[in-house]
Amino acid sequence: TWTIGNIAEDQIERVRQQIGDHRAICALSGGVDSAVAAAIVAKAIGDRLTCVYVDHGLMRKNESVAIEKAFRESTGAELKIVDAEKEFLDALAGVTDPEEKRKIIGREFIRCFERAEVEILGDSDEKVAFLVQGTLYPDVVESGGGAGTSNIKSHHNVGGLPEDLEFELVEPLRELFKDEVRAVGSQLGLPDEIVQRQPFPGPGLGIRIIGEVTKDRLDILREADAIAREEMTKAGLDRDIWQMPVVLLADVRSVGVQGDGRTYGHPVVLRPVTSEDAMTADWARLPYDVMERISTRITNEVSEINRVTVDITSKPPGTIEWE
Ligand code: XMP
């Protein structure tokens, strides 16, 4: 019979046969798919797998540390952290166009992987022959069963790997749906923190700041986003809501009043959605008391933000992210 337990065993065995005694590399995005794929391959080939996690400075508050810790503890896999905040922010300086931002972020990811590969190999004359990807069944279907990467994921860090690296792909989740991937992840001992994680885009907060991306603006957004996420978790809404981007309208200011004084700050937008697969989405009817707590806390605790708004547009016509 077809159970989650033997799906995992079966995939581990298949990966073992595919890779043999070669080396593999896996780009961890922090998301559930790449983490589960990595966990399967780690069980199959042990320390001949190196996972690479690029910290581009566009992650949410405490996120990189939490992902690193949770992943290391639960898989024991070799994990290489590439600290590339400066490179990413320098490359993004002065850029406001969303597509331009995405291209720059994709390009910087490529550079990080190239550097990581060189470091992993050191002086050895071995090659990293295999690349692990967390491609799911819906991705395969959307791409017509071809290369295994869909349009939605074309911006993803893995999708941006240079073609001339000539890796053979290892895709142990190719036949699975998201809920099965989560079940396999739990079976392999990954914590809920990873397995139940809501989707978060590869370009991170870089596409949630409308206007130029700077360190200061990222810090403001990180604070607001952390408050929103904390209140959503406290209200027990994490499983009901597909995801809730918080977007900083960094190029917009509005007049407000706080204490005795006039303020001239920035708005943030809450973008809570429900969805089955992110192809379409409905705006989520958040409880008023939860919205109230988020609004009060953000405007009290983040001095640069003086207005909190809620996006009530479905997809279509709006996309989930603002950029
Ligand atoms: P949109 O904004 O197109 O987003 O409605 C659909 C889903 O995809 C996520 N998303 C991305 N994920 N790299 C990713 O890995 C990206 O560049 C990217 N852009 C959007 C988004 O968060 C939502 O879940």
From TrEMBL:
TM region(s), chain numbering:
none
The enzyme's E.C. designation: 6.3.5.2
Subunit info here reads: Homodimer.
GO MF, one term, reads: GMP synthase activity
Q: Which UniProt keywords apply?
A: ATP-binding, Glutamine amidotransferase, GMP biosynthesis, Ligase, Nucleotide-binding, Purine biosynthesis
Catalysed transformations (reactions): XMP + L-glutamine + ATP + H2O = GMP + L-glutamate + AMP + diphosphate + 2 H(+)
Annotated pathway, please? Purine metabolism; GMP biosynthesis; GMP from XMP (L-Gln route): step 1/1
Protein name as catalogued:
GMP synthase [glutamine-hydrolyzing]
User: What's this protein's function?
Assistant: Catalyzes the synthesis of GMP from XMP.
Question: Entire protein: which part is shown?
Answer: 202 to 524 of 524
Give the first-level EC class, as a single word: ligase
Binding site residues for ATP: S29, G30, G31, V32, D33, S34, A35
Q: Which residues form the GMPS ATP-PPase domain?
A: 2-197
Q: Which organism is it from?
A: Nocardioides turkmenicus
One GO cellular component this record assigns the protein to is: cytosol
